Amino acid sequence: MAGTVPDTERFDRKHVGNTFNGVNAFIGLKPGVLYSSVRQIELFVPDDRSDDALSVLDDEGIDYVRTAEAGDGTDGELVSFPLPPQAVERVLSSLREAGIDDQFVVVSSIETARTPRIDELEERYVNGQEEDDSIAHEEIRSRAMNMTPGRVTYYAMTVLSAIVATAGLLLDSPAIVVGSMVIAPQVSAALTGTVGLVLDDREMVIDGLTSLAFGLGVAIVSAFVFAWIVRSGGVVPSTIDITAIVQVQNRISPGLLAIVVGICAGAAGAFGLATAIPVSLVGVMIAVALIPAAAAVGIGMAWGDPSVALGAFVLVAVNATSILFSGLAVFWYLGYRPDGWTRGSIRENLSSEWVDTLAVAVVLGVIVLSMGGLVLGQYVLYENSVNDEVRTVLDDDEYADLELVEVRTEFVGVGVDDESAVTVVVQRPADAPYPNLVADLETTLEDRTDRDVAVVVEFVDAGRSTEA
């Protein structure tokens, strides 16, 4: 039969041995139609379940090849068939519901496949009413594991990305910071841990979370060592105010928008891994939320500035937790559940191991998010107080000609008593002096916030064109 096209739409072939050539069954059967990114499924079906399995495939309009197999005292056949990636989970679920044991299932990628009815499957699952980008549980587990590089590669790339990020922050160069995100490997650890949580795979959870935690620790230490060498070697003046560097400022004030980045990064990573969408760019998004902030922690430690180190560390911890939980939520929304999960029966699904794993993750997450919420809340209250008092001072008749342009506040951490900096940008009539403005602002802000505040006023001179 190899190389011929049967009259029927189903391929029935009994064969024992190793001479079966599956390529002849799937390639060259539909001239003029070419499909790519196809999954080939190989499923062992015992003889007593053969009719049920073939009935499911016939109902789904799937072309298949049957090969007789015998082993371990069980007679049966190996059923092979090509599917679009989006159809794999649906078909395997239908086979399970029909009582087909899936202890031996192989899902592999093939370049092209042509069968009489695969165009109909493509139309249904890619372009039609049953369009769905979700991939099978088996494939998402495999993709998550395959994303993880070897330990040497993982930590080496982490060190390199942290060094590049540190250099980019100190140079105040967004382009270099982006470069550090491209080579950062944290996406593999974050998504492996999240997939392990949703599929109840404790080994994946432990491997993913420990790799993420140790990786971020290595990134912080690497950034600290590099920043210390740069500072000690005079490459960057040791007296430089690192909080005045815009790229550093953006990582030491964990505002709400910065946390939103972490949430969106985790959600995007989950969508990328759980669907047919490539995840390469998603890795950059996850690195955006982690690597530059980790580098800022190392810079703060190297410069002996606890407010910078604490602010950036809180941002790293909160974003890492946000990535994990938002990814978990997306996987759950897409219908991924632990193996053996029964819909509509929550109590039966709550195994002690899965509950214990999830409980530990939730408790740790709540602790981190609570800490982040405390710092964020303090920062928001501080920032609001500063903005209110600056406007109050400028409302005085003495400063009636001034117009507020911008107020920049440095992050003030919990339990950090260092003097905080506030930069006030105002527009004034050309060259008009306001010698008392700085003192008035400092006095008012210190009275309101009960902290030592260093105020910097930047004037923007207003001008008017003399042309008619």
TrEMBL record:
Keywords on record: Membrane, Transmembrane, Transmembrane helix
Annotated transmembrane regions: 152-171, 177-199, 211-230, 256-274, 281-303, 309-336, 357-381
One Pfam match: DUF389
UniProt key word Mitochondrion: no
Keyword Transmembrane: yes
Recorded coiled-coil stretches: none
Name listed for the protein in its UniProt record: TIGR00341 family protein
Organism placement in taxonomy: Archaea, Methanobacteriati, Methanobacteriota, Stenosarchaea group, Halobacteria
